[in-house]
Amino acid sequence: MKAAVYYGIRDIRIEDRPVPEIGEEDILLKVGACAICGTDLKVFMHGYKKFKPPQIVGHEISGSIEARGRQVQGYEIGERVSVVPIISCGECHYCRKGWTHLCTIFQKRTEAFGFYHPGGFAEYLAIPAKAIKRGNLVRVPENVSDEEAAIAEPMACALNGQMISGVGIGDEVLIIGAGPIGCMHISLAKTLGATKVIVSEIKEERLKLSRQFGADYYINPDRENLEAILMDVTGGIGPSVIIIAAPSRVAQEMSLEIAASRAHIDFFGGLPKDDSTAHLDSNLIHYKELNIHGSSGSTSEQIRICLDLMSGRRVEGKKFISKIISLEELPDMMNEIQKGNYLKIVVKP
Prior knowledge:
Layout: E1 2-8, E2 11-16, E3 27-35, H1 38-46, E4 55-56, E5 60-68, E6 80-83, H2 93-96, H3 104-109, E7 124-127, H4 129-133, E8 137-139, H5 146-150, H6 152-165, E9 172-176, H7 180-192, E10 196-200, H8 204-210, E11 217-219, H9 226-233, E12 241-244, H10 249-258, E13 264-267, H11 282-287, E14 291-294, H12 300-311, E15 321-326, H13 330-336, E16 344-348
Parallel strand pairs: 9-10, 9-12, 10-11, 12-13, 13-14, 15-16
Antiparallel strand pairs: 1-2, 1-4, 3-5, 3-7, 3-16, 5-6, 6-8
Helix pairs in contact: 6-7, 6-12
C-alpha cells in the first residue's frame, strides 16, 4: 500500500508499505479520507518529543471496514466509520468520568493514531482490539461523505470548547482567529443559538475565507479598534463568551479586559512551548467574576454529535474543505498550507 511516512522535520516520504496484518480481534480499515491537522503541521515543522519516526502520520480519519478478525462483533464489512484518534485506557479517573481525551495513559505516551500507532495517511489502517473495545469507531451517516467524516474530529474539538463555555441562546460570542477551527466555531456558535457572532482575525485572506460562514461582524484588529467595535455591538457590555482559536498570548491577556462580567473565556489555541506563560490581571478575574478555562481534544460522543450535525445540514461540512488531494501531493501541500490560504485540506489515499 502507499503511505506517507514521517522521518523527521520537513521530511515526509511517500512509500510502499505492507498492508497491515490484523489479529482475530482487530479490524482493517480502508482509509476513505484523512484531513491535515494543525498538529500535523507542527510535527512536520518542528518535530515532537513523544513521536518516534519513522511513522505513518495523520489522525483525522474516516474509512470503511475492509476486513475484521473472527472474534470482532458489532461491525460489518463495508461499514463506514470515523476514527477517534485517542485510544483511552477506560480505567483511569478521567476515563471513568467520560473525559476520555484527558486519559492519563494517553497523556503519558500519546497513544493515538498517527503518533503511537500508525495513522491515516495511508491506504489501509489497522484498528487494534483495544481501540474497538474503547469505542474508537463511530458510524458515519449515509449522507455524510468520507471527506466530511474526516473533519468530524476537529469539529468535535471545537464543540468541546463551546460546551465547556456553555454557548447558547442569548450569547454574544467573540472568536479570535479565523483559521479552519475558528470557522468551525462560527458555525457551531450559530447552531447552538448565539445571538451575535463576532470574528477577529489579523490575516485578511483568512478573514475573507471565514465570511462564507455568516458571522455577524468581521474585524481586523490591526486596522480597526476591536474594543470600540465590541462595546458598540454589545451595548457597552462586552462578549459573554470569548474563544481564542489562535496561538496568541497577547489575545489571551487582552481577553480579560474586553470580556463582559461573568463571561466564559476559552483558551482553545495552545501557545508555543517557548512562550507559554500569559500574564493575566487577577483583579479583572476577581471583580468581573470571569470564567477562564482551556479546552483540548474531544470524545467519541462529541464526534458523533458533529456527524449528526453535518447529516442534518445544521453545519455544512463541505464548506470547511478547501481542497482534496492525493497522497502523493501531501509533502508539497505541507509547505503550501502554511501560507494560510486554505481551510481544511483532505487527503484521499
